[in-house]
Design goal:
The structure is a homodimer of 331-residue chains. Chain A is of the alpha/beta class and 331 residues long. In chain A, 44% of the residues lie in helices and 18% in strands. Chain A contains 14 helices and 14 strands. The structure holds a DNA duplex (16 and 16 nucleotides).
DNA sequence: CTGAAAGCGCTAACAT
DNA sequence: ATGTTAGCGCTTTCAG
């Protein structure tokens, strides 16, 4: 049906081996031959068949980026989007393609779709079931964990300094003179949740402030929940003058709630977010937040994965991405 | 290296043909055989090799979703994200995987990566060079165009009723009593740009209003440009009382500009967006906008593509997605 | 229901 | 520099 290397070989008079070489290692073929071959190929609309190549090379030059279903919809997620984007760029550089899926997609009735598809490697973003990782290990497929802290040391991982990020956020609020500081903590994975909470508490303690449990809430990391919870907080007579929200989406919801109730940000209520996602600049006033270098996260995760695929031994198994305070207008 | 069908065959005592059948058509194998085979497979961590399968079936069960580079960063784009998400879901249902790329990625130095990778089909989102489409046609790879109006009738396409969407947006502003209505028109593809502009103009004309060219601007469809242009508009003494922005991102920028200048939305300046993207609910006040059923767009594009891949003849070649006014708080 | 055998299109030795 | 050949792992007739 489609034209193959044999058609081209016949047409140009060279053997199929030479035609193959003209594509995979052009310099090992005489210029004359190359020209003839490319001409014939063009005429026949020939394009090398990646499947056949993958078959013999035992490499697809495809990797998978798997986002935990909780983060659904995967692609819309303002935190993971830029990470994915960076990983894509890195992949493109290497002539690799990226499959994107949620961990839910993987559990198809008839089994391990992504294993069947013979990925050369996999990036897991967010939480993953240990069993999923093992599936890949069993097939000797390299895995990199992104924003996920496995118990085992064996996996490569790229993580964030959640604790310190939370610290500088709350520290900043203290610097601004706030003494009553609330927390809107998104229910991320236990590890992330806990690290950000501890960062918050440690700063309060350092400043001799007490965390009032009435002003510490855990919630879904959504706009709606941020708004809902903040609205409730606002009703309390002795409410805090500032809130640390553990991501920008929650913070945006919180800002909405404050503005709607007729109060001002930051004059009446100051707010700090986390992630420095796109959202932080969409809203007015713009959000003070904790920047995470998501670009670097995506890039590093991809680079580590490619290093493993290439059989290099990766020295630095665990990278922790630093965080940085970005002061805008909500504090 | 990896375990193959032969290893399993040896272990369970059946031939490799039977093992293959146990996976591709389980009902044609005795239950007894199936059990033995699956047990052996499990023990050996066997997973069918998709490459080998694709090789003989001449199908990869992969499709590509290609976004025009102008929309970069592809995945972050609040308009295309939900479309992609819907297409992904549809693909997952069919056991297909989706590759995501920008049209820029395709132009690799050494050529047509996505053709080499043997996609079963391709969805082009946004503008595409006609030549890119032809490349795929030559390889007999089905193509669906999304939000793109090709001159040729031959391609399947899923588009939006831009004209009518613009009409109902501006009509709504007229209903609210506005007589001076400005336009912030994003530089999308010429077709989209023109259709939304004409929709705007037609309503003005119908109401006996004149479009003042000073208040009709074309700009990059970004937050920054929306803010910048609106700020300039606000300086004019006889400025409009309402603006139609041709997407939500521009509208969000415009809202920021208005609020920053100390004016109120919608009391001083009313604003309507377009797309009903995520952004419209992030900002306060929430954005009145034109909803496009992006869910349907993604789903239909994928379905049409699969119909072509399956060799069905697609009756309805061109689908136009309707638009709907969503009234929130900026008007 | 099961087995034998012929490829799918390409690459990678090994020859020439 | 070019040709020959033996597979890569699986599906799919065709027999039995």
């Amino acid at each position: 049906m489609a034209t193959t290397i044999i058609d081209v070989a016949k047409k140009c008079g060279y053997s199929k081996a030479t035609v193959a070489r003209a594509y995979s290692s052009p310099q090992s073929v005489s210029e004359r031959a190359r020209e003839k071959i490319y001409a014939a190929a063009k005429e026949l609309h020939y394009a090398p068949n990646a499947i056949a190549r993958a078959m013999v090379r035992q490499r697809t030059e495809n990797i998978a980026f798997i986002i935990h279903e909780k983060q659904y919809p995967a692609i819309l997620n303002p935190f993971y989007s830029p990470i994915l984007e960076a990983a894509m760029q890195e992949a493109t550089k290497r002539n690799y393609s990226i499959f994107i899926t949620t961990s839910q997609d993987m559990r198809l009735p008839n089994g391990e779709m992504y294993i069947e598809k013979n990925m050369d490697g996999v990036i897991f973003a967010g939480e993953v079931a240990g069993s999923s990782i093992q599936e890949f290990q069993k097939q000797n497929i390299p895995v990199v964990l992104l924003n996920n802290c496995p118990d085992a040391e064996e996996f490569l991982s790229v993580t964030i300094d959640h604790f310190h990020g939370a610290e500088i956020a709350v520290e900043h609020l203290c610097d601004r003179g706030h003494r009553r500081i609330g927390l809107l903590a998104g229910r991320f994975s236990p590890h992330v949740f806990e690290a950000r909470l501890q960062g918050y508490l440690s700063v309060l303690e350092r400043h001799g402030l007490s965390g009032d449990s009435r002003f510490i809430a855990d919630l879904d990391p959504t706009l709606e929940d941020g708004e809902r919870v903040m609205t409730a907080m606002l009703d309390q007579p002795d409410r805090p003058t500032a809130f640390f929200c553990t991501n920008d989406t929650i913070a945006a919801g919180a800002v909405k709630a404050v503005l709607r109730s007729g109060l001002r940000v930051p004059e009446d209520i100051a707010i700090v977010g986390f992630d420095d996602s796109y959202i932080s600049q969409v809203i007015e006033p713009e959000l003070t937040t904790i920047r995470v270098d998501t670009q670097a996260m995506g890039r590093l995760a991809a680079q580590k994965l490619f290093d493993m695929i290439d059989g290099k031994d990766v020295t630095e198994k665990h990278v922790e991405i630093p965080t940085e305070l970005i002061i805008r207008s909500t504090t």
